[in-house]
């Protein structure tokens, strides 16, 4: 389309808006009726560690959403001379899991507890035993039960639980609903019923709610919807929340709000059986669509769902590219100290290109990216480490490769559990900023997982685009399922790069992973060290 036709498409509302609240960036993406991106906007934000809890304030949520939408509107105007006052549909996505609890007057009862918190071990273990399915520490029901066990004062007032995507959608539409993929990270779902597992809800209520005088959990959870179902319309209040300037019109329809895992699956066309995707950001996770359920309960694996409700095995690692980002900042600071200004994207490209030149096993250098606890390997707190033997060759290339391998270390261990359970994959589709440097992260991920890895042209766009596609799907759901819509109308003929595992990289990563598993004892020991005590001792030595 030329500029004039795109402008007409925008002004006539033949578009969809997707908004995703990621861990480091809030992004808005505008697409046309074919799902083609037209404009985008973003806002950078960071979680805070407040009183030992990883959180974001709700004020920061709206500052960020408004900034991202404002940047998108300005981008549309700058590119096409069109500033939209309405859209065809809107979709919301955000980080899954965590704990947002409200009272009967819609007041937030305790600061938002994100997926990154790992203080719910006792609750998660108890619920896993009770419900007969793995309940990870980050799931909403684990946070709720831990609050009950800890006898937190706010528990008596809880009237509504939701996720971040559910919260934003609720404020914009007035509807307390959730897409089934995101709901599956709150409480186990029944794929056949396309809702929460009724039998397990009864188990929770009889064993937990009754004992602790807690409301029936079904009364607290959002209503579950699947992709293609209408989930409300933009209210007057919601329109002002998105656009305080007051130009955005209310009444725009919404698709069900989804988690970042679900919109990542949509953005990579990985919603059909035997497909899977890997998302790399502050966390790293793999979603594998199952042909049938798993044969056993695995602590490393969540059983969740696609936005259409198909069963999914999820390997979620709390730690992703955050430590690589920290090192990129160090190298950028070093360049600045030498009088050379280097853009952040250029630093990443140098590191990732260098990683391809490193020894296949990273020359004996181990990197642990654990900024937070990592339940996959049994740690409840983080301590980033770089460990090497005196014989290892410390070069930029080997160091960079160890850092990228470190991002995929715990993911590889979790995926091995799926292989032992008989789960088969034809290929993995990857997305996230790590894959913007063509071929680098993709090649090393293929080595870590032992399967071909495909990356599409929009790999760096992520879930905001996926949310927009789910919004567009509202107009197609009556005649085609989600997998068919994506395959036939969005991704048909789309350029995709596929990289098969390199035999030398495969052998090298296998050696790295053996060392990585042994070295986890060092990581666990570091986590056990009382940092405050060490700091006090160091202070005494200085004095």
TrEMBL record:
GO biological process: D-xylose metabolic process
Record-linked InterPro entries: ATPase_NBD, FGGY_C, FGGY_Carb_Kinase, FGGY_N
One Gene Ontology MF term: kinase activity
Domain annotation Carbohydrate kinase FGGY N-terminal: ranges: 16-241
Organism domain of life: Bacteria
SUPFAM superfamilies to which the protein is assigned, alphabetical: Actin-like ATPase domain
Domain Carbohydrate kinase FGGY C-terminal, chain residue ranges per copy: 277-473
Keywords of this entry: Carbohydrate metabolism, Kinase, Transferase, Xylose metabolism
Pfam families: FGGY_C, FGGY_N
Family statement: Belongs to the FGGY kinase family.
PANTHER family, sorted: SUGAR KINASE, XYLULOSE KINASE
Name this polypeptide is given: Sugar (Pentulose or hexulose) kinase
Organism: Paraoerskovia marina
């Amino acid at each position: 389309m030329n500029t004039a036709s795109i402008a007409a498409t925008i002004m006539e509302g033949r578009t969809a808006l997707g908004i995703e609240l990621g861990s480091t960036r809030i992004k808005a993406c505008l697409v046309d009726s074919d799902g083609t991106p037209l404009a985008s906007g973003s806002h950078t934000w960071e979680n805070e560690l407040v009183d030992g809890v990883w959180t974001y304030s709700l004020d920061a949520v709206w500052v960020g959403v408004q900034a991202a939408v404002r940047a998108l509107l300005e981008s549309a105007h700058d590119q096409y001379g069109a500033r939209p006052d309405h859209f065809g549909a809107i979709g919301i996505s955000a980080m899954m899991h965590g704990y947002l609890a409200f009272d009967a007057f819609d007041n937030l009862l305790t600061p938002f507890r994100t997926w990154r918190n790992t203080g719910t071990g006792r609750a998660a273990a108890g619920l896993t035993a009770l419900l007969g399915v793995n309940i990870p520490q980050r799931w909403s029901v684990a946070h709720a039960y831990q609050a009950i066990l800890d006898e937190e004062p706010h528990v008596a007032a809880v009237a509504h639980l939701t996720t971040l995507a559910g919260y934003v959608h609720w404020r914009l539409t007035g509807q307390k609903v959730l897409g089934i993929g995101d709901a599956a990270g709150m409480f186990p779902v029944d794929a056949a019923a396309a809702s929460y597992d009724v039998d397990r809800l009864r188990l929770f209520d009889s064993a937990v709610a009754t004992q602790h005088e807690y409301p029936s959990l079904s009364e607290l959870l959002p209503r579950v919807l699947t992709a293609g179902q209408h989930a409300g319309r933009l209210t007057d209040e919601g329109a002002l929340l998105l656009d305080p300037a007051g130009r955005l019109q209310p009444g725009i329809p919404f698709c069900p709000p989804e988690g970042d895992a679900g919109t990542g699956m949509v953005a990579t066309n990985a919603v059909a059986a035997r497909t899977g995707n890997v998302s790399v950001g502050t966390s790293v996770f793999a979603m594998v669509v199952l042909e049938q359920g798993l044969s056993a309960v695995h602590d490393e694996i969540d059983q969740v769902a696609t936005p259409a409700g198909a069963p999914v095995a999820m390997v979620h690692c709390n730690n992703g590219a955050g430590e690589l980002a920290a090192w990129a900042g160090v190298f950028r600071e070093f360049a600045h100290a030498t009088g050379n200004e280097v853009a952040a994207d250029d630093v990443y490209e140098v590191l990732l290109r260098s990683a391809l030149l490193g020894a296949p096993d990273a020359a004996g250098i181990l990197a642990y990216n654990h900024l937070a606890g990592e339940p996959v390997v049994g740690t409840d707190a983080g301590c980033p480490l770089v460990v090497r033997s005196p014989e290892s060759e410390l070069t930029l290339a080997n160091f960079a490769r160890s850092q990228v391998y470190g991002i995929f270390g715990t993911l590889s261990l979790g995926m091995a559990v799926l292989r032992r359970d008989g789960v088969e994959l034809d290929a993995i589709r990857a997305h996230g900023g790590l894959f913007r440097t063509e071929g680098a992260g993709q090649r090393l991920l293929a080595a870590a997982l032992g399967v071909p890895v495909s990356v599409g042209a929009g790999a760096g766009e992520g879930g905001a685009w996926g949310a927009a596609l789910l919004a567009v799907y509202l107009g197609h759901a009556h005649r085609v399922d989600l997998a068919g819509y994506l395959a036939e109308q969005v991704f048909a003929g789309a350029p995709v790069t596929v990289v098969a595992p390199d035999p030398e990289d495969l052998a090298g990563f296998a050696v790295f992973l053996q060392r990585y598993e042994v070295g986890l004892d060092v990581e666990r020991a570091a986590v056990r060290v009382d940092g405050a005590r060490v700091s006090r001792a160091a202070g005494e030595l200085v004095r």
